[in-house]
Amino acid sequence: MAALPSLAFAGIGLMGLPMCQRLLAAGYPLTVWNRNPEKCAPLVAAGARRVTTPAQLCEHADVVMVCLANTEVVREVVFAADGVASGAKGGQLLVDFSSLEPTATREMAAQLVHQCGMGWLDAPVSGGVAGAEAGSLAIMVGGELADLERVRGALLSVGQRVTHMGPVGAGQVTKACNQMIVACNALVIAEVVALAERSGVDARLLAEALGGGFADSRPLQILAPQMAESRFEPVKWHVRTLLKDLDSAVKFSREQGSATPISGLAAQLMRLHGGQGFLEKDPATLIHLYREPGSKG
Amino acid sequence: MAALPSLAFAGIGLMGLPMCQRLLAAGYPLTVWNRNPEKCAPLVAAGARRVTTPAQLCEHADVVMVCLANTEVVREVVFAADGVASGAKGGQLLVDFSSLEPTATREMAAQLVHQCGMGWLDAPVSGGVAGAEAGSLAIMVGGELADLERVRGALLSVGQRVTHMGPVGAGQVTKACNQMIVACNALVIAEVVALAERSGVDARLLAEALGGGFADSRPLQILAPQMAESRFEPVKWHVRTLLKDLDSAVKFSREQGSATPISGLAAQLMRLHGGQGFLEKDPATLIHLYREPGSKG
Predict the structure, then answer these.
(1) To pair with A131 at 20 to 30 A between CA atoms, which of A61, A201, B243, B277?
(2) Would B297 be classed as within a structural domain?
(3) A290, closest residue in chain B (CA to CA)
(4) pLDDT tens column, A109-124
(5) How far is A266 from A239, CA to CA, in rounded Å?
(6) Any idea which residues of A carry the catalytic annotation?
(7) Which of A102, A136, A166 corresponds to the end of one domain?
């Protein structure tokens, strides 16, 4: 049995923390960095090494994983003066779990290999914090298959499904497809809950009545009851995230010459809702777009 | 153990035939009528009694079930000169499995009870021919709860989930909600398959990569591979049906004062696609809206 490869990880947030905890539990030697170093404390206590710049991650591991908020943050952590690229050597590999714009991913991957010979796998995840904690994430990978094989074991420590979708950027395209489906579905669910309410149907029963059928989905089971009961707390995910992902997907589709009439309208409706003060609220609040003011909740 | 009530059934089509076969298998005495009487032959062979007018159905059973193509056909079978209403007595019950406009259902139900004292349950189903054959339909019921209890056992012979959604028409509203979600999702799936294809992603892997996550659904698992492989035969369901259901749902929403921006756009896109010659084709052909002509299939 070969020794497990050493790993490094930048971005110890809501997703990164449980992912690192699972990597440590699986026995991987792990070096971590986070802008706010206090977030690393539970990992250091569990055996991780902490460094003070992203560049130093490359001294301790051949595979540097990152899980960060957006394209700008990834660009800075990788390409700033003390970024990953400044410490990288040829043959090392970067694995990006963040959800980024596919075009930016392709540009940064090309820049990284040109600048220091480090490879790039985009590996955005689906499943949220609960999936990260349970190790049940779905991971959509773009990049060289040989690079994926180097880290497949580690990816299967944090997720239960790893799918190689194509060259660099293909993982991000797949994540964009995921978010288009989820966000559009959330908006249609708001339409049907409001329609049910206005026409004398007990909207609390919709999820049960449609369960197991062609209209069923996890968003239906989660959102429809929340909407029908005006239950908007605790906030599990954010309108802001769906809006960012829709805007990014629609922009990328335009660049590819691919029409997205439904997703385009969904982005506008999501922006309308966000602009009414709901950016940091749960997507269940989308029902407010369709309900008469004061009718409920 | 009480004897099973006698049932009658009008409309021996793709759905009605297997539903009647399941009722006979469950031991219900069954009288049947169909415009084209030949369709009744397999049921007569299995023990059903055949009559020659809808009115005669009321002579042999207190519960008359109908499963017909649309509002106009139901109106004729119930209210024509030799229709169900002309033979009905007070206390009898009509169970309508068809998918109709909720407003028309409410009007016909009021007319039927006024004219002859016969009650009305709307009980549209979801699950298609395969669900009817397997007895796994979901049945969404509107009407008096006491009327539902009279036939719950029979409904559970043809479906596995029976949900009482509210007063007469509530079943049809729920079915409209179901179809809005399914049709909008089908259109978004076409958008993402096309986007994946145009950006170098293996679209055949989308269903697998997104399986089990928030974007997953039965339409995703069925349509995405069909679209990616340009596999449009055999035709399992029709663009025409989704268009009819969307138009009906959008019209009803307008009557209720409920906005449906996504479903409204979906209806227009579905009409655009149908108008290009795809009305009788499988919804998997929706990918043609988004693909360059001649690029595939």
Answers:
(1) A61
(2) no
(3) B259
(4) 999 999 999 999 999 9
(5) 12
(6) 175
(7) A166
